[in-house]
Amino acid sequence: MSFQLRREEVLDGDRLKAMLEDSPARAAQAILIAAREGVLDAQALLGQILLDGRGIELDQQLALRWFEIAANGGHLMARNMLGRCHEHGWGCVADAAVAARHYRVAADAGLDWAMYNFANLLATGRGVVEDQVQALSLYRRAAELGHAKSMNLLGRYLEEGRICPADRVGAVEWYRRSALGGDFRGQFSYAAVLADEGNIEEALAWLRQALAGGNLNFLRVASKALLTATDPQIRALAADYAQRYTELEQTLTPL
Q1: What is the band of 15 on the pLDDT scale with cuts at 50, 70, 90?
Q2: CA 250, chain centre distance (Å)
Q3: Predicted local confidence at residue 164, as pLDDT
Q4: 148-179 in b/e burial notation, b at 16+ Cβ within 10 A?
Q5: Rounded Cα–Cα distance for residues 105 and 82 (Å)
Q6: Average pLDDT score over residue span 218-230
Q7: CA-CA-CA-CA torsion for 237, 205, 214, 129, nearest 10 degrees?
Q8: Which of 94, 121, 198, 213 pairs as cysteine with 89 (C-beta 3.0–4.6 A)?
């Protein structure tokens, strides 16, 4: 089935994103046209839908190429996604050192996601020399920009007093903000604090939100942690986490 797209529709990045929600296949055609016209947002978006196989055939190598094109044009999220590709080996051989270089460029330019990703490498010494001080600084900068995942990790540093003075009040506030920002790990962290304070009902509500949004690795670890909870209602959620983990795992296992 053929159809025509108005030029202004093709070249409007926000309209392309909205179209992607309604009609992925139509959006993919429009995104491809706009990317070829040199629209940076469309080039980065094309890389993303190629990486996801959304509305278009999955092609990690071509996704990498479009991220490179957009990044070379100055698109910071595309630069961050180049880092992701090199970190995880999407369309290329995994190389954490190359990933770190891309993350650093975007982080230095002010992108919160790149700050978070670069901090993760620094915190674990992957591709770079481990540097907890710089990692904490980047998590803090990203958190202050509103990055929910960084808020949770900043809270963790403050709670544990790791390379910084322990600050439980500050940690709880960052966990709360991370939870409100939609990060499932932040929701779990905040729930743990609430449970310690005896606020079981609110803790359960946040744990259920974390359950709904959590990924495989989180669900696996969290289900085991919940088994050690003192409150029986919270402990009972371990089975729900384990069941959700099994369901997600099955969707990734070829029949």
Answers
A1: confident
A2: 22
A3: 97
A4: bbbbbbbbbbbbeeeeeeeeeebbbbbbbbbb
A5: 11
A6: 96
A7: -110
A8: 94
In terms of Cβ atoms closer than 10 Å to its own Cβ (0-12, 13-18, 19+), residue 95 is: middle
Range scoring the smallest mean pLDDT among 28-32, 169-173, 176-180, 206-210: 28-32
Burial of 240 (C-beta count, 10 Å sphere; 0-12/13-18/19+): middle
Q: How far apart are CA 78 and CA 212, in angstroms?
A: 28
- For residues 241 and 229, the answer to whether their CB atoms sit within 8 Å is no
Retrieve residue 49's tokens: 């839908």
Q: State both tokens at 20.
A: 């992607």
What does the alpha-carbon distance between residue 63 and residue 89 come to, in Å, rounded to a whole number?
Answer: 12
Count CA within 13 A, CB hemisphere, residue 241.
Answer: 27
pLDDT (0 to 100) of residue 14:
73
Average pLDDT rounded to a whole number, residues 66-83? 98
- C-alpha separations of 194 from 137, 188, 190, 203, 221 in Å: 27, 10, 6, 5, 19
Place of tokens 């050192």: 97
